[in-house]
């Protein structure tokens, strides 16, 4: 049936089309059914709401902003609507819940339907539960990864070697990406780096870079940036890479569930979609990290198995995840650390610098830009020479940002409070999750200049009255709330 | 914040409130967040959509029909809206997915939140998956049952003995309820029977009774009916009994998953909510029934365990589920069978009559209306005397229906086609699911007079040219589609 599109500027969190109830009946559609909407150029599967009389005519269809954006349609244009076909993929999800293993075509059907919006969030929740409770074989995970890549956009660069790095996260700051990308692209490597925004942390790389440059691009623009300056630091969410993955993550967040299969496929799919050939994966482990040592080793071996099936050169490095890396926690405060390292400030955080050099060195070695054991030396030369800072600046400019008025941009939030040591002692524990939660209480990542600055690391001696950390907030209320939170959870034990 | 309610007559399948985006921001609410809406008398948790400018003002809130109905509010009235509090129950669902067992207070928190609409359908899907993949102990199922009852309405009758019957379903027709209720209430028992509509079958008891009487009542009206005539045959969905159960079932249907824990709790909760003290549970078993013999025995023993914890007098009867019981399949066609038995027609289906007598007899015995082994005799007397038919008529009238113009009401759909035996043989198999699916293709239960009429039973001799069944449809298209379907699935093998 052909209907006239009407925009209500309504955002519903999912594609919703509103029909007159008579029109819905004529189409055999009920409230909450799924239907397919087509224009000449695009199609999308939507959820049906209905109205009785009133503000939508029988020959009209009101489209939520999610649909308007996806179809690129203007009000007054006509669209075709039909009931969505039955989805066999539901049955495959049911099979997985029962404990069967899924062959490739079934995994593709599920992922295709998720990407096409043909499965509801509840149906995706069943799929996530199935992966979590029943587990997936390496072959299934490899198929899942392939399916995510093939049902999304790809970057299609021409380079033979494309390098990438990834950390499974969980460690506050640990903001090595901007440094590694600047160093490795200075050495001539291509690094089309996509990053996430914070989910449970105080900042993601995308949040940090956004302080000085745009990070949301369409894939053709990303390609231009990478072709021009060799690399980028952009948000992965707007590119259409592995769209099913984004939808799965959205449903996972409701319950903080992250099945291993999905964790692995999600990471590898985003890398494959940009054409990465050489990947360095950082798995920080430790008591308050995402994984402890034994799980880290298991996860690494699973990653290795799957990379082999996918014919990817994947190197894994297990790193110390026992404490935050760098001093700042929050977008602006983390960017301060990065800039201070790039411009070779004396008081720049050494732990972050050393980790970035080590990761860069490994990437330069596996991509044959440096001989074995020579990678770190080359990386440090590039950093010391100022080339990395110059490249960083180039990338920021290519993304439409700049480093003008840097001091102002790097100014922390206006309200602050120092937390002091109450006795002479030694730092015994710094809990990663509590530090991240503290920075979030202070306002990060929404308030970009909010967060915390750490002065001490594990095993350091402290004297009574020494500064342990400073909390920065944009309002007095948030500052007070953060301080109360600090007292309650005690993230630092000494 | 206090906002002016606006009705768009919009049905969204879930309670959706639409705010101006500035208003949402002021409340700290984002698209898809949950918020609590209150009037002086009622409250409900809703999902937030937003609009930019245009048809909703900053001091207005548009409410979907689901909210308007639940709050009983008129447009122009004011409501209070606040962000919904954090839901600890999500964490308990996560624990169950991990495989932990849940203590009573955690199960109550989950069920309370589901009943209050504070958990999304995706979150309910996680709970269903957890029950399905991890299983639940008898104690957990008993707690689940209690939680469902306590978070809903109750009937609160004064009688000491309240009888009920239930079949787990899966057998076409098998419409014993109207007969059992008429017989047992004739003997003085109280039977406040609630029934379902068809989900995957061709008719539920509610669909059948609706041919001659209303079946949707509020609980106070149901109470009046039962107090007047001793029993009722109403739809369970409008009464507010165990509301969390209805929501769980809605999400289960997406994937046709029915975890044992939920199956048991769902049945027992509806019975407890109407105050049932003596329950007869019919578990038909067989190759094309819901369960085969071994599973039926297991299920029966699980039911027994839980009934013991709940201190319920539950009797279980395993019956032959190898074929449909009765001749008609579809609301009108099943009602024909019932009426023919009640008025003692010679050609009334004996299998249905005998099963109804047997079930009635058991109920009369366990409630001490009849001595051991005397129940069936009493039941048959009541049926033969015409008392049961009289009582049936009373109940129908109490529900606002009548048996006037019965021949017209019992007329099957206008298009029909006989399916004949192609050879001399014996009926070897009649597949329950395929028979139900065939009647649905013909139009049942939406077209009340559509369905099929069966002439033969298992092991009966047939001669070439004998009628096997008649298909009835309201349109030629549906009739043809049903006949094609018959040829394709072959529900009867001989």
Could you explain the architecture of this structure?
2 copies of one chain form a homodimer. By secondary structure, the first copy, chain A, is α/β, with parallel strands linked by helices. Chain A has 19 helices and 20 strands. A 6-stranded mixed barrel of chain A has the order 1-6-3-5-4-7. A 4-stranded antiparallel β-sheet of chain A has the order 13-17-19-14. In chain A, β4 (34-38) and β5 (43-51) form a beta hairpin. The first copy, chain A, is globular and about 75 Å long. The interface between A and B is large, with 44 and 44 residues.
Can you describe this structure in just a few lines?
The structure is a homodimer of 494-residue chains. With 494 residues, the first copy, chain A, is an alpha/beta fold.
For the record, the CATH class of the largest domain in chain A is: Alpha Beta
> Largest interface, per-chain counts?
A-B, 44 and 44 residues
| Rg over alpha carbons of chain A | 25 Å
Mean pLDDT of chain A: 94
CATH architecture assignment of the largest domain in chain A: 3-Layer(aba) Sandwich
CATH topology of the largest domain in chain A: Pyrimidine Nucleoside Phosphorylase, Chain A, domain 2
Rough outline of chain A: globular
Distance between the termini of chain A: 70 Å
The biggest sheet of chain A amounts to: 6 strands, mixed, barrel
- For CATH, the homologous superfamily of the largest domain in chain A is named as Nucleoside phosphorylase/phosphoribosyltransferase catalytic domain
Q: What proportion of the residues of chain A is helical, as a percent range?
A: 40-55%
- Count of beta strands of chain A: 20
């Amino acid at each position: 049936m052909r209907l006239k599109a009407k925009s209500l500027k309504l955002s519903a969190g999912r594609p919703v089309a509103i029909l007159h109830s008579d029109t819905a009946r004529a189409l055999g559609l009920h409230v909450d059914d799924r239907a397919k909407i087509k224009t000449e150029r695009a199609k999308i599967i939507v959820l049906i709401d209905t109205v009785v009389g009133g503000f939508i005519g029988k020959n009209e269809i009101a489209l939520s902003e999610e649909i308007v954006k996806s179809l690129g349609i203007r009000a007054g244009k006509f669209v075709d609507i039909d009931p969505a076909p039955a989805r066999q993929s539901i049955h495959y999800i049911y099979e997985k819940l029962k404990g069967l293993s899924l062959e490739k075509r079934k995994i593709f059907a599920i992922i295709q339907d998720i990407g096409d919006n043909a499965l509801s969030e509840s149906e995706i929740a069943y799929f996530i539960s199935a992966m979590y409770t029943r587990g997936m074989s390496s072959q299934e995970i490899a198929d899942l990864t392939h399916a995510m890549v093939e049902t999304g956009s790809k970057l299609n660069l021409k380079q033979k070697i494309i390098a990438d790095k990834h950390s499974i996260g969980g460690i506050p700051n640990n903001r090595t990406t901007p440094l590694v990308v600047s160093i490795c692209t200075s050495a001539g490597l291509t690094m089309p780096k996509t990053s996430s925004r914070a989910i449970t942390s105080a900042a993601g790389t995308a949040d940090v870079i956004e302080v000085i440059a745009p990070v949301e691009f369409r894939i053709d623009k990303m390609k231009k940036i990478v072709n021009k300056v060799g690399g980028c630091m952009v948000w992965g969410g707007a590119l259409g890479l592995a769209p099913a993955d984004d939808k799965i993550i959205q449903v996972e967040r409701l319950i903080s569930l992250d099945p291993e299969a999905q964790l692995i496929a999600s990471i590898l799919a985003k890398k494959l979609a940009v054409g990465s050939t050489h990947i360095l994966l950082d798995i920080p482990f430790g008591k308050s990290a995402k994984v402890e040592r034994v799980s880290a080793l298991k996860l690494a071996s699973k990653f290795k198995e799957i990379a082999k099936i996918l014919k990817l050169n994947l190197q894994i490095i297990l790193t110390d995840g026992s404490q935050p890396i760098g001093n700042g926690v929050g977008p602006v405060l983390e960017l301060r650390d990065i800039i201070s390292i790039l411009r070779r400030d004396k008081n720049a955080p050494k732990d972050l610098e050393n980790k970035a050099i080590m990761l860069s060195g490994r990437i330069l070695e596996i991509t044959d830009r440096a001989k074995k054991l020579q990678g770190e030396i080359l990386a440090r030369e590039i950093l010391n020479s100022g080339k990395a800072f110059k490249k960083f600046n180039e990338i920021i400019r290519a993304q439409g940002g700049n480093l003008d008025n840097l001091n102002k941009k790097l100014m922390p939030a206006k309200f602050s409070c120092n937390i002091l040591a109450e006795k002479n002692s030694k730092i015994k524990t710094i809990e990663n999750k509590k530090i991240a939660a503290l920075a979030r209480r202070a306002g990060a990542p929404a308030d970009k200049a909010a967060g915390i600055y750490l002065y001490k690391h594990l095993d350091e001696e402290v004297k009574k009255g020494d500064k342990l950390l400073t909390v920065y907030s944009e309002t007095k209320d948030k500052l007070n709330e953060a301080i109360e939170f600090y007292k309650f959870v005690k993230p630092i034990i000494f």
